[in-house]
Batch of 2 targets.
Target 1
Amino acid sequence: MYAKFHSIGAFVPSKVLSNADLEKMVDTSDEWILKRTGIKERRIASENEVTSDMATIASKIAIKRAGLEKEDIDLVVCATVTPDYFNMPSTACVISDKLGIKNVQAFDISAACSGFVYALSVAKAFIESGMKKHVLIIGAEKFSSLVDYTDRSTCILFGDGAGSAVISATEDKNEAIIDIHASADGSYADFLVTPAPGAVHPVSQKVIDEGLNFVQMKGNETFKLAVRTLTKDVKEILAKNKIDAKDIPHFVPHQANYRIIKAVGDALKMTEEQVVLTVGKYGNTSAASIPMAINDIYESGRLKKGELMLLDTFGGGLTWASALLPFAGESL
Ligand code: UT7
């Protein structure tokens, strides 16, 4: 039994936070943000719109596009670092309930921006082992809930959104996910960290006073490591599977920073047409970034059945992952 990438769906909140808006909030400029990151604007969820709400909408679309009913789903995996609750119930349980999916295994994955590709590897393993047939995987973030909007080094980067995919069993090797590399190095944990709340820093006045509940990032160090690691990783997965970068119509990188994407794309000698870019309009949406980008090319009619995708991602942990797979859903 093989696993296939059966369908995609996504949701973005309607509220736009532009660079001009951020100029009024912190000491920054549209010119600096655009030049250093490629981001023009990002979406921000409203106060009563939480991670599971966005994920539920994206998931309904993905299930419908797979031609399935909610009763067909036998595993729900949600990748997020902005769960509805720290840390019970899992957001996957909340999403399952909102979708009306009963009595199936549901759990979250915490791998920051690499979460969606990690979830893809879990779905692939469950399906190939014969344990599950249709796995709903989700990358969803209300990242604005972790951001200190007085910290210019992080608040310009992140946005909110959700993307979902159904991964299904198939006997046809031609439509199977080809390969996934997922890895981590915890010695770089302090590069990207939300110190509280957790066992290290339970909620306290100190947490509030020192803003330990907000995301902290060693941006420049993370940037350099991301370029090095991703370039090596994508070259390895292509070489291992004897696929040339020029034969990949859709390179779908994590949308953290245009300059990281460009550096990795250039190292692979990719053309502009091959590289999927949504960072300008959505910013960095962490685990949601890759499924939102896949949905973007799907809805614009660029992603056709059978076409190869190369996914690559890098995030807190530190974690990184890449995947090589054909799109096995029906073209729009
Ligand atoms: O998704 C998970 C993985 N995340 C990433 O991969 C993110 C990786 N990092 C980045 O994308 C980039 O490092 C940033 C966009 C965060 C920062 O860009 P940079 O080119 O690495 O800038 P920097 O941190 O080295 O800062 C350069 C200067 C500093 O000023 P001085 O010390 O040179 O005077 C900063 O204080 O830019 C300043 N700066 C800003 N200026 C205007 C930092 N943030 C801003 C800002 N507006 N928002």
Target 2
Amino acid sequence: MKFDQQIRNYIYGELEAPISGTYIDNYSPATGEVYSKIPDSDERDVLRAVKAAERAFPVWSNCGVKKRFRVMMRIADIIEQYLEDFAQAETTDTGKPITLSRTIDIPRSHSNLRFFATAILHFASEAHHMERQAINYTMRRPIGVVGCISPWNLPLYLFTWKIAPALAAGNCVVAKPSEITPMTAYLLSKACIEAGLPAGVLNIVHGYGQKAGQAIVEHPLVKAVSFTGGTATGKRIATLTAPHFKKVSLELGGKNPNVIFADCDFEKMMTTTVRSSFANQGQICLCGSRIFVEKHLYELFRDEFVKRVKKMVIGNPYSDKTDLGAVVSKEHKEKILSYIELAKEEGGEILYGGEVVEVAGKYENGYYLQPTIIEGLNHQCKTNQEEIFGPVVTIMPFDTEEEVLAYANSTQYGLSATVWTQNISRAQRMAEKLEVGIVWINTWLTRDLRTPFGGMKNSGLGREGGWEALRFFTEPKNVCIHV
Ligand code: NDP
């Protein structure tokens, strides 16, 4: 599948230029060069998209689940058929290693579509019998036109994670990918055309969040908004939607603790911790950026962790051998570096990393950073409280379970946590007391798409995944029949 140099919006089944006629430069993080142009859409494009979705809604919502299932499965098949093209596009847009795009991002995207296409065939609602009086049943109808807005770190993976349940449930969608990484969403629009998705069922508008994104959120016909991104943007969306009582699902930032007890399976923990710290250059909302290690394991852990991280290969993201590619943008690189400076000011010692990586030749202007390990900071400092969202972790020792729970729960965030221990009772106690939406015990990023996904505290509102997502994208109505 061809990725064009000029991306177009996907509205009412057609690929079209933005009404303004203006475009935004799209950079490849691997080379630092502009490689394509993104529509700089505004509220006029959003209005066209919303109207298209409104027009398509009566037919799509009433066509029956089998028809929706069939067309969504076709879209999934096309993504799988062009997996390599999608993977190349994802790596070019994000700078992530091609192995990640090939084995995680793109496969998960077609799985999302298949998962919700089949889930809708099994989706059932509740019934409540009142003996000799009445029968109640819950009718679940699609909401109408809904908005889906996603971030740049897992572009197609998170975009389809929202769009798939919305479409399966019978809604029509106006969606916006991050303007930093729009290419696979553009390829998705081509896949939808090839699959025969009826016009207007899915509309993709490209452009800036504060312009195109906000126009989607604010449009009165958009009845629900599913958003993944930063906590500050989530707060803005909550403020904009509250007066209109729109349904919102917010998946926001994290500062996840990785708690390692001395009785863990050391080898499994170590291999996984290298990954949970630096996969996708640390730009996964679920990465464990604060590592707490029980005191009598601390030195052994630190030395082995540094030794392994030193061996990681950084650079050309198109090489199968690369562990860390480029971070997503020049601005993001500067932000991460400023946090490393802050960590030093706060008394942290850089055990490894902290520097820009100079990659020779074609990639010399790309945005490459060393994986960075910092020790000597307390849990309350800014470095340990704010989301960095890059290849930077801090390591800290602890003595007791109570102490590490207080450290782990000390931030405004509550997305996920990882716990390493062979003691099942302790694992259970920790799982109960950690203030997060997702706990992994002796593993990380093991995902079953049926489970509720999301965070507590300032990491979000509501849950995605499985029935939770289908419930979000439907309106329940109780019907009471007197008998
Ligand atoms: P942002 O919040 O900056 O942006 C997310 C999306 O919202 C983008 O498409 C952006 O558009 C758009 N946007 C920005 N402003 C508005 C607005 N006023 N109205 C509507 N839409 C808007 O997040 P990032 O893209 O920087 O992503 C990183 C963040 O996402 C991190 O905090 C990370 O933790 C979080 N995240 C959370 C996950 C979770 O499941 N909890 C998963 C993955 C990431 P544009 O970029 O085009 O301007």
